[in-house]
Amino acid sequence: MRIEEGFTIDAPAAEVWAILSDPRQLSELLPGAEITERIDDTTWEGGMTVKVGPLVAAYTGTVSFMLNEEERSAVVRALGQGKAGMGTAEMTMNSRVAALPDGGSEVTMDSDVTVTGILAQLGRGMTQVVSRRMLQEFVKRLTSALENEAKEAEP
Questions:
Q1: In terms of C-beta density within 10 A (0-12 exposed, 13-18 middle, 19 or more buried), how is residue 41 classed?
Q2: Is 132 in contact with 22 (CB distance < 8 Å)?
Q3: Residue 68 is part of a domain; what is its CATH number?
Q4: Structural domain boundaries, residue 64
């Protein structure tokens, strides 16, 4: 399933990129995500928990980040195995942070997601609803993190 999302944020592109290109910071902002161990320069071990109504699906696996600092773009690939027969999840996401003329930033994300097991049975519509809800929470947390950094930088 293909999911295209994006958002604008009132913060300089360099500051947004600094957070989005750091796997540990990123995982702290993404609802249900956890980084547990660094495997090498581009790959991390971790987990993801997704709540859909009364259903909770938990996955463990790996996530790799291929960053292009100059273009402020990334290719993120995640592979997860569900716990207790929940199936599998696989995602490849291309993202980019672009500076806007007003000093803000635009973040675009284009993802291919494949799930098997119980989440796949819920259908595409439910997966998109959950994806949007997670993105909204992520943007709220990212905005708060950027605001806190700006306050700490003030003299």
A1: exposed
A2: no
A3: 3.30.530.20
A4: 2-149
